[in-house]
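Sequence only, no structure available. Ideas?
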Amino acid sequence: MTRIFFSLFIVSFVLALPLKKQDYIDFIDARYSGDTSTVDSMITENFIYNHVPYVGLGIFTEYVNGELMITGIVDDSIQTALDIGDKIHEINGENVKTFGQDFNGPVGDNQTLIVTKSGDSTFQELAIPLAEYRYRQNNLSFYESILNYANSWYSFEINVIDILKEKEKAFVHYVWKGSKYEEGPIYRFYAMELIYSSKKSKLIYQVDVLWSEIQFRNQFK
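Reply:
I predicted one. Tokens follow.
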């Protein structure tokens, strides 16, 4: 009986070991590979991915026939003037752009929009202040986004610049490089993430992408 109890204690102790640095690196690699099976085995059911906070209008848009169609709202408790299906025709006196729209300025700075509301053809002028937003994804939304991203690239590589680990938390600084077709140009970005894992289950329950310098610079006109 003593021998059985001792064996069970050893097994329980091993299972309770925290994630190693390589586990966090493998998680990042699986994400960009679109390997949802591996990602699913490494995260909790209530997993949250917190994107970089930014100053803007908190909307997702799609360019359609010379207009920006609003397809999503980051936080409708903050952004109350716009709704999904609204169309933006002008921003600060300029026509909307086909390749996306930047909103520059500090929090509280008004952006003047010419808008037609969903189901209405009447043009309205709205003055909407910039605010700080942070887009959050649950596990299902996260799976969809990593699949879409992986399918957009022919090849990629990740180089970890530094990784600092303290108990159930790891700070990872890495550079991603990829091309959209064979022998095509190489694109890259740098990222810093805080990854949190559960002490009990060893599964990752949260990722926080940190504020970057460009988010600061974009507040200046």
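The first strand starts at residue 43 and ends at 50.
Hope that gets you unstuck.
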